[in-house]
Amino acid sequence: MFYYEIVCCSCRQKFRVYEGSLKYKLYKERTNKVFHCEDCNSKIRMDAIKNFFRYLN
Ligand SMILES: [Zn+2]
Fold it and tell me: In terms of CB atoms within 10 Å, which end of the chain has fewer, N or C?
């Protein structure tokens, strides 16, 4: 299986994106220059959800 090793722009940890995933495609096509690992991705998603609910209240 092909993959790229990308450095997460948030925690600076290396992580892999595997062929067939959306990130792999984005990286290959250089559409997106900023990448987050899964951990940071879920943190960002959680923060967004929290902010969303804060906004509603
Ligand atoms: Zn990260």
Answer: C
CA-CA distance, 17 to 24, in Å (whole number)?
A: 5
Write the CA distances from 2 to 9, 10, 48, 52, integer angstroms: 22, 24, 32, 37
DSSP 9-48: TTT--EEEEETTSHHHHHHHTT-------HHHHHHHHHHH
CA of 47 to the centre of ligand 1 (A): 14
| Average pLDDT rounded to a whole number, residues 5-12 | 95
The model scores a pTM over 0.85: no
Domain boundaries in the chain? 3-56
